[in-house]
Amino acid sequence: MTGHEYARAQRRAAFVTALEHPDAATRERAQQRVQRWNDVLRNTEAGRVRIGSRAPVEGAPVWATPEVVRGGFATGRLAAEGALADDERATASRYGLPEDRRALFDHALSPAGLANLHALLDDGCYRAEQPEETALLTVAWLHRIGEHLAADRLVAELRPWADRLRFTPRAAAAPVVGLVARQTVPETRKALDTKQERPQIARMRETLAVWNPLRDELVEHWRATVRDGWVGAHRPPEWVEASQALQGRFDELAEHHRLCDKPHRPDDNLAIMLRALHDDAVLPLLAVRLPRMTPRPPERAEQARVAAQPTHPQLAQVVGRRLEGLVGIDDTEALLGPVTSRELPALPDDEPVPAAVARLVRRARRGTVEDLVADGTIPSAEVLAELTPTLTAEAVAADAPDPASRTLLATGLRAFAARRSLLLTGLAAQVRAEELPWIAAVQDRRRPGAVSPSRARLVALGELALANFPATPMPNPLMEQLQVLGRASGAELPLVPELAADIFEGRFSRTFARAASLAGDLLDGTLYARYYGRRHEWTADEFSAACRDRAGDPEWSVAGNGAVIEQAQVLTTHNLIVLAGPLGVRIDWEAAARESLRVVTVHLRDARHAPGRRGALRSVRVAANAWRQLVFHLTAAGPEATATFLASPVDEGVQPLVHALRRVHEGAFLSGTRAPRVAADLGRYPFLGWVAGGPHPAVG
């Protein structure tokens, strides 16, 4: 699928959602996505956006942050442009300036503007949504340390964009500290205030509170007509008037209560009783059903009690109000006491905070990343990757010249980390933070000879990820942060990204060859090398050719590309060798292998019972990734631990894999490097997740 085809497909999907989704907020967000994809297509076709370029917006420098949508496509707008924010308009009003960015830019460089920037540098109470918003703060800092020429050069580079981009920061209540949280307090309050009840629970409540009482009224209404066993035999005028009132009430309720469709089904008792009000032909059917419709008072009383209980959204909004005025949350349990009748007057008794609401609040707890992993607030390597930019920024900024520059650099790096990756071609690399001239200006002035904490943070994050999520290959965002830490500590580490099979160009960068060569040197003769079959030195061209050859030289397809990429992951160990080798990360490798085996077992079982082929293949690929991690963990654990591990009983579904690994451990060799073609060969070939040209033998 070409870039244009992908963009059109995304626009179509967003358009359908904007038209058909039942939730108004979801429709509005989808309409915004439609507009952004329209921008992608229009600007690409007009040549104002170049797909695959590091600087995709026509005329914009590489440091300008582009607005990027799913898949890495630039819309043609820059992230730091747009209408003036409220604080910018307030500044313009205060100083009698025109409401345009160039006037604000020039004001920031005036004596009054520089004084404001120096005050922000001193107290640290600012934030940046885009990295450009720290640029003029850097100008002020350069003037402060006497680097006037450097400040002038930076201003000259920024000035051509002064009428378009925001280069000043936003106010913050307090400086950002070293603790992290999965969500901010405002994000948590918004999630609590907009929490929706699960559809099945909402339908049950509607049935209990609305339709069951109406059904009971209709039953009593029809029972009053029974004479000598005949339903409808006695219908005085007041009964007819009551019938009209009941029909009218149903119509009104049906207009406002649409979650439950059962009352609208023709065969439902409620629908039958309503039809019988004006259609005597239904009476025989009603006569058969009416005796079985007698309400049971104790049951209805319990249902009414359940229907009257506060909903999760109501309780969530109460808890959200408890968060008012908080900047951060250090103790979530103090906020999660029972909801009282003073907070929610309809409550007869104190009501415990639902577990789902408590989970939302706990996401806002501040703590060290180690604490948040330990208590489950960070449940995956992907979530860990979301939080690492704060830690990375502080580690890199720690050796900046003074406290003001440390806060300044950390703020810019955090904002840069939120910059979305671009779809690139020709093995181009994503823009690095140090390519932004104002960030480089601070980094270039770090204290000479200082002992950087970046390496210590790098090792700590590697150990945290491997020890707690050993079956998960390193997510790209986490890998990118480790690369930042590596460069800051003076090491250009050969960490490799996970590539997308649908846009793979058939070649790998030199970094892949470097990582594979390192793995070849350090793993020669080990269990990992014998299981997967490998060699030592590679050039970039040799490496690309070898991966294709090991995958069976498949024709271009998503599955074929996936098979080639997987061979690259095998040969490079997908970053494990860099962590365990040059960096010296040490964890309980045998425990990591056991957790990886658990994941393999679960996902192979899921694959065999998945309802569709796509879901089954997805589970197999997760299992294959975890298996590759397992083989490396055992290699790092050593032969004795491996022997003990392989002698332990395992689930029947993974026995062929463990048997093959046991034979390799004992000195045998497998039959090749490709994925097996039939189930009988699962124990003779390495277990891989991608198979080109046919079904995977693990699922048939």
UniProtKB/TrEMBL annotation:
> Superkingdom of this entry's organism?
Bacteria
Protein name in UniProt: Uncharacterized protein
Q: Lineage of the source organism?
A: Bacteria, Bacillati, Actinomycetota, Actinomycetes, Pseudonocardiales
